[in-house]
Amino acid sequence: PLVSMKEMLENAKNDHYAVGQFNINNLEYAQAILQAAEEEKSPVILGVSEGAARYMSGFNVVVEVVNALIKALNVEVPVAIHLDHGSSFEKCAEAIHAGFTSVMIDGSHLPLEENIALTKKVVELAHIHGVSVEAELERIGGQEDDLIVAETEAFYAIPSECENFVKETQVDCFAPALGSVHGPYKGGPNLGFERMQEVMVLTGIPLVLHGGTGIPLKDIQRAISLGTAKINVNTENQIMQTKKIREVLETDREVYDPRKYMGPGREAIKETVIGKIREFGSAQKA
Ligand code: G3H
Ligand code: ZN
């Protein structure tokens, strides 16, 4: 069933695992991720960027498709549909009214006070609807869809500001920028674990790690031990799907039936998600 992230992330934080947010781009992504979660008996978050929602003909279509799949595939694990990097109050409101159970408002490009004011406004609306809210402080580098942040603009969040931000806004979970990057890492990630620990202690709420693609297992485990309860993965599924499809197309130059390459691509997404669910420790936690 569709639920907000509130309870799943509280449980994850208390029990020291993380719930994966896996972004969807089309039907195959939604199928693969829901099946992986159900097989692993794991709670799961379907991330939907504004760009991906546009590609799928809008928020309403996304909600209808996901609801229909939950029914058709007999999905019993908790599922949240979450707006990823919501760019404005209006977009968050649109997603909430379409039936999203969770939204992220990304005001990380704004001055602190404006980010707080915007996030507060989204929280007020969302909580009336039982929808959970995630927010971001300081900017996460790299590129995801239309969101591009240069290295020179990506600073590490300051713990005292995080404390104030969470207290003022009453968000349900919180993504402080601490060195993670959207898309593949050049070299390895350089995560600010000391600050992460401080932010955990000062805010007390589940923390979110964006840019989950390419973070080594030991860093994942350390982040979880420091209060990270949600990890976002997008690029890795795209890479594995595309690699598989390319392989099929290169091996069989005659193939034209989309199911013959989209099907194996879907399988590759599912396997990737299962691997992440196990790394994050959320298997058998539904
Ligand atoms: O918001 C989504 C994520 O932070 C995904 O990051 O594409 O590097 O896995 P990624
Ligand atoms: Zn992100």
Overview of this protein structure:
This protein is 50% helix and 18% strand. It has eleven helices and eleven strands. It has an eight-stranded parallel beta sheet. Helix 6 links the parallel strand 4 (102-105) and strand 5. Helix 2 (27-40) packs across helix 11 and helix 5 (89-98) runs parallel beside helix 6. The protein is globular. The protein starts with 5 loop residues before the first helix and ends in a 6-residue tail after the last helix. The protein binds glyceraldehyde-3-phosphate and zinc ion. Zinc ion binds at residues 85, 140, 144, 182, 210, 232.
Structural class, by secondary structure, is alpha/beta
Shape summary: globular
**Uncertain residue segments:** none
Number of helices: 11
User: Spatial order of the strands in the main sheet?
Assistant: 8-5-4-3-2-1-11-10
The helicity comes to 40-55%
* Rg from Cα: 18 Å
The count of strands amounts to 11
Largest sheet, in brief, is: 8 strands, parallel
Q: What is the assembly state of the chains in this entry?
A: single chain
Strand content: 15-25%
Quick check: average pLDDT?
97
CATH fold call: TIM Barrel
The ligands found in this model are: glyceraldehyde-3-phosphate, zinc ion
CATH superfamily: Aldolase class I
CATH architecture: Alpha-Beta Barrel
Domain tally: 1
The level-1 CATH class: Alpha Beta
